[in-house]
């Protein structure tokens, strides 16, 4: 164990610029608070658990607190003073590479608290009772122990990062709480201390499997476009019945009897059934609770003359308490609910409909989960001038003030998301589903009834609730498919449970890997590429272009590996850009093979390298030089993510190269067209058109064959 030093004479002196709390000082003294916060509910310094809920503005956030009871008692008071300064001091200290201002956000403090406590527990085990007793030698010992632990590199980085944060605020603390004057570990970067990068790329949230995502989205769109009308009507009837039952007004026997008579007559006229349920012995039993809802009375109606009228009516009893609203939605031509929707199904289907809307909005907009969960009614508008749908909202990540400090209440997005009609329809459905100002409230009920029901006043669903809702949606679909004998179940995803955070990366993957694939309802991923990576949605503040850049990077490296192997195996390349193709493949392999990314933005920056501007299309390869391109580029010439439109390739473009793989595709196409040309029954106009194309393709094939002797020249050089 390292030797500890003793205190100096000014051990307890507090710097003049530092405000020092007393036992009753409020924890969130100098933090913005949520509107309506009760001052009496705020935690005081002397408490061992500090609630910071009042400083968290995101509606979807869970209850937040800092628990000091788990910190060893000798270091607990110093820890509380230190954290109080992080929360309340206007400029506690600057962290290198923090990317923000001097004042950490509440989220940052919460995130690092566990790592900070681990450091304090380690110090306690080494006999330390005050921060000033820590020596450089002791920090070296701590670093060695952290490096030896079998924990993720992310956690190791966080452990040493919180030590640096404690050191960065030493200027506002009394000497007894200051770490040594020299920066921890000589100020070396974490990657140098541990000898390797933090594995951000390996630990990033996995995308959703292709088949799982496709089926999930298809069923979500079915809900919003085919089932929504029935669910909305059933939900309205459910609420009306529930409120009628809660009315509490005493009905006279005469009024109840009149209502019962009218109700029974209506059932006879329309061939209806009495609400019921299947009893323990398998027989159908009248559901008197539901009849009480319909008549606006109590269940005791069964023991009255009105009840006897129902029993003796001869009207058959149903196996459920079906609502009056008929179901008209169809599933591939057949009614999806032939018997209608039951009273107890209505709220569950409403929640499923809300979940379906979340899938569509979160997936097809590319917005962050927290941004989606904080959307409010009226957030979507149609720009008639450009014929696009715009979705407005608030963003919390990267929302900072003039000093670079996080804005806890977030900020309105400077540019709205550009979305497609399916997203706009999903928002419209949510606005009809409930009266809450948030699109995704905790409960789909009139929100006034549920204020102050939980410790946290955030009213939006949390990430955890959304994950449970997604699981419930999948379970409902699979159960329904088994009941109907359908095969389009939502298959389980091999990478784990469905969570909101997985949608953005999944969309980026689909746009990059399946540009011509259909999402659902004839929505094409290429269309989403145009909408989301250009104009408003292409704003880098949205974060989605960085997600796309990472997927693009991975894809291009995979293709680069295939291209390199093909050249090494003697693949021939022809066309005006053949030499440029060979040079780029060879040089890019030398430069990027085994390259490690440190962030999404790093991927975006790397994609601007000309060596990676190789884009494979159908029967051609574009070695992109934006200045020479004849097609309509996706993006602007100076955009790092600019790509050619390989579906609009012009034959005379100087960017074209053709590999043996491209030629094989063209040879098959040539054979198909030659068969049409040889068909004597082909219409003359079509014959001439296809003959012209056959001759063009033959010239390409001949050129590729004639230049075969030069196919390895670029590789050898």
Structure write-up:
With 717 residues, this protein is mainly alpha-helical. It has 4 domains: 39-197, Tyrosine recombinase, N-terminal domain (DNA polymerase, domain 1); 210-335, no CATH class; 357-464 and 476-536, hpI Integrase, Chain A; 544-716, no CATH class. Helix content is 44%, strand content 6%. It contains 22 helices and 15 strands. It has a 4-stranded antiparallel sheet with strand order 12-15-14-13. The chain has a 3-stranded antiparallel sheet with strand order 7-8-11. Strand 5 (330-331) and strand 6 (334-335) form a beta hairpin. Helix 7 (210-245) packs parallel to helix 13 and helix 8 (253-270) packs parallel to helix 10. The longest helix is centred in the N-terminal third of the chain and has 36 residues, at 210-245.
Compact summary:
This protein has 22 helices and 15 strands. It is mainly alpha-helical and 717 residues long.
> What is the straight-line distance between the termini?
61 Å
Over the alpha carbons, how many angstroms does the gyration radius reach? 33 Å
Mean pLDDT: 84
Number of helices: 22
What is the helical fraction, as a range of percent?
40-55%
Number of strands: 15
* Arrangement of strands in the largest sheet: 12-15-14-13
Q: What number of structural domains do the residues give?
A: 4
The low-confidence parts are 1-10, 199-203, 447-457, 535-540, 712-717
The secondary-structure class comes to mainly alpha
Q: Sheet bearing the most strands, described?
A: 4 strands, antiparallel
Strand content: 5-15%
Sum up the overall morphology in one term: flat
């Amino acid at each position: 164990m390292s030797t500890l030093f003793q205190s100096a004479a000014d051990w307890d002196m507090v710097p003049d610029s530092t405000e020092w709390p007393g036992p009753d000082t409020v924890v969130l003294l100098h933090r913005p608070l949520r509107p309506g916060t009760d001052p009496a509910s705020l935690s005081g310094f002397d408490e061992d658990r500090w609630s910071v809920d009042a400083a968290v503005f995101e509606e979807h956030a869970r209850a937040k607190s800092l628990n000091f009871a788990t910190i060893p008692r000798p270091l607990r008071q110093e820890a509380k003073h230190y954290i109080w300064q992080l929360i309340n001091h206007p400029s506690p200290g600057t962290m290198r590479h923090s990317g923000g201002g001097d004042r950490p956000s509440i989220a940052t403090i919460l995130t690092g608290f566990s790592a900070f406590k681990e450091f304090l527990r380690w110090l306690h085990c080494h006999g330390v009772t005050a921060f000033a007793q820590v020596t450089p030698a002791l920090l070296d010992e701590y670093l060695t122990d952290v490096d030896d632990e079998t924990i993720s590199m992310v956690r190791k980085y966080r452990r040493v990062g919180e030590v640096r944060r404690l050191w960065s605020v030493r200027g506002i603390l009394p000497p007894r709480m200051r770490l040594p004057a020299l920066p921890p570990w000589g100020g070396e970067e974490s990657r140098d201390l541990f000898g390797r990068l933090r594995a951000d790329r390996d630990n990033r949230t996995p995308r959703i499997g292709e088949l799982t995502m496709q089926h999930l989205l298809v069923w979500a769109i079915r809900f919003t476009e085919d089932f929504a009308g029935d669910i909305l009507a059933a939900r309205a009837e459910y609420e009306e019945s529930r409120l009628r039952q809660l009315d509490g007004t005493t009905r006279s026997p005469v009024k109840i009897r009149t209502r019962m008579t009218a109700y029974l007559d209506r059932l006879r006229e329309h061939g209806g059934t009495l609400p019921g349920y299947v009893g323990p012995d398998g027989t159908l039993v009248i559901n008197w609770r539901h009849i009480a809802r319909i008549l606006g009375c109590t269940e005791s109606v069964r023991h009255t003359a009105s009840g006897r009228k129902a029993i003796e009516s001869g009207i058959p009893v149903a196996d459920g308490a079906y609502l009056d609203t008929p179901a008209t939605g169809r599933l591939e031509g057949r009614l999806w609910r032939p018997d209608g929707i039951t009273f107890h199904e209505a709220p569950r289907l409403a929640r499923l409909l809300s979940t379906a809307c979340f899938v569509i909005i979160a997936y097809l907009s590319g917005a962050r989960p927290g941004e989606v969960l904080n959307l409010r009614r009226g957030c979507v508008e149609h720009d008639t001038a450009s014929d696009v749908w715009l979705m407005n909202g608030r963003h919390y990540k990267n929302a900072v003030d003039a000093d670079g400090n996080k804005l806890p209440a977030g900020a309105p997005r400077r540019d709205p998301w550009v979305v497609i009609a399916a997203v706009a329809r999903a928002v419209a459905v949510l606005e009809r589903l409930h009266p809450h100002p948030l699109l995704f409230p905790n409960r789909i009920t009139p929100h006034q009834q549920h204020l102050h029901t939980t410790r946290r006043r955030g009213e939006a669903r949390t990430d955890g609730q959304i994950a449970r809702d997604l699981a419930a949606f999948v379970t409902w679909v699979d159960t329904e498919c088994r009941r109907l004998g359908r095969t389009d179940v939502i298959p389980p995803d091999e990478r784990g449970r469905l969570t909101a955070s997985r949608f953005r990366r999944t969309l980026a993957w689909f746009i990059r890997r399946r540009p011509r694939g259909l999402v659902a309802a004839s929505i094409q991923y290429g269309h989403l590429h145009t909408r989301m990576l250009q104009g408003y949605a292409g704003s880098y503040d949205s974060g989605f272009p960085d997600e796309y850049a990472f997927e693009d990077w991975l894809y291009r490296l995979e293709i680069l590996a295939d291209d390199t192997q093909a050249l090494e195996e003697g693949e021939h390349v022809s066309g005006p850009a053949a030499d440029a193709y060979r040079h780029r493949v060879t040089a890019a392999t030398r430069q990027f093979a085994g390259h490690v990314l440190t962030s999404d933005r790093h991927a975006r920056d790397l994609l601007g390298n000309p060596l990676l501007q190789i884009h494979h299309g159908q029967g051609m390869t574009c070695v992109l030089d934006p200045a020479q391109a004849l097609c309509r580029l996706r993006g602007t010439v100076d955009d790092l993510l600019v790509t050619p439109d390989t579906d609009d390739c012009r034959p005379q473009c100087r960017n074209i190269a053709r590999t043996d793989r491209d030629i094989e595709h063209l040879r098959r196409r040539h054979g198909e067209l030659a068969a049409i040309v040889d068909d004597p029954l082909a219409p003359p106009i079509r014959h001439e058109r296809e003959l012209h194309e056959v001759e063009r393709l033959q010239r390409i094939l001949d050129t590729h064959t004639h230049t075969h002797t030069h196919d390895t020249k670029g590789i050898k050089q």
